[in-house]
Automatic annotation (TrEMBL):
Protein name: Alpha/beta hydrolase
Molecular function (Gene Ontology), one example: hydrolase activity
One Pfam assignment: Abhydrolase_1
Record's keyword terms, sorted: Hydrolase
Species in which this protein is naturally found: Actinoplanes auranticolor
Keyword Iron annotated: no
Entry-linked InterPro entries: AB_hydrolase_1, AB_hydrolase_fold, AB_hydrolase_sf, Epox_hydrolase-like
Domain AB hydrolase-1 as annotated: residue spans: 12-236
Length: 250
């Protein structure tokens, strides 16, 4: 299956992988800036998000992304991943290092990190609300958890819309096909790597960025003192130049 995606611009390819609170629309503020900086931008919806249907068999998000790259004739690309999309980016960069020229991870998830009590409590509350059929409350729970204080009302509304849509698509599935929790060997990553964390994010993701900065050879780490979990949406005016400067230096 080819993931739902879009392509814009010309030049070196940058692949954008969305947070699992969102879909590929989360990159709306980045696409024009990256295209204007001379890049070909590819963004896709993982299965069960945005316009991509839920999986109908066991699958791998990382394999899906590489298959998409192949279909577009892209042998190498810079990859930018947010949260759950960062976890997918890590798997690609570690398992297929020759395919990734640069790697930027925004508040990334990682199989190697054990969930904190805060995240476990959040997950239990989300499950309870969804089991009770209260999708609206589960959506609000996610907005409050993951959108930082710098975000304006329009950004919060956009995250709300994307998360609500993901819930509706996934809850309509007849059968679930969860992916195995495979931990990539991040020391195998050869791409120049930037980790970005937010001072207002849940501690899990701040700790993950700091730990990965130690484990990935030559990786850099920047913590944004104003950011929550979705800095590229919360302050694109700051994050866009940060990403473009990183890509140009790669």
């Amino acid at each position: 299956m080819t993931l739902s995606h879009d392509v814009a611009g010309d030049g070196p390819t940058v692949v954008l992988l969305h947070s699992t609170v969102c879909d590929r629309r989360m990159w709306d503020p980045q696409v024009p800036a990256l295209v204007g900086a001379g890049y070909r931008v590819v963004r896709a919806d993982f299965r069960g998000y945005g316009d991509s249907p839920v999986p109908d068999r066991p699958h791998s998000d990382a394999d899906d992304v590489v298959e998409l790259m192949d279909s577009l004739g892209t042998q190498q690309a810079a990859v930018i991943g947010a949260s759950g999309g960062g976890r997918v980016a890590l798997e690609i960069a570690a398992g297929r290092p020759e395919r990734v020229t640069a790697l930027a991870l925004l508040c990334t998830a990682w199989w190697g990190h054990e969930d904190s009590a805060v995240v476990r409590a959040f997950g239990a509350r989300e499950d309870a609300l969804l089991e009770a059929g209260d999708v609206a409350a589960a959506t609000e729970l996610n907005v409050e958890m993951w959108v930082g204080p710098a975000a304006d009302r329009a950004t919060r509304d956009k995250v709300r819309e994307m998360q609500r849509h993901a819930f509706e698509v996934q809850l309509a599935a007849v059968e679930e096909f969860p992916q195995p929790a495979t931990e990539p060997e991040v020391a195998a990553i050869t791409a120049r790597t930037l980790l970005v964390s937010g001072a207002h994010d849940v501690i899990d993701f701040r700790e993950t960025s700091a730990e990965l900065a130690k484990r990935i050879p030559g990786a850099g780490h920047v913590e944004l003192d104003w950011a929550g979990h979705l800095p590229s949406l919360e302050r694109p005016d700051v994050v866009n130049p940060l990403l473009i400067n990183f890509l140009r230096a790669s």
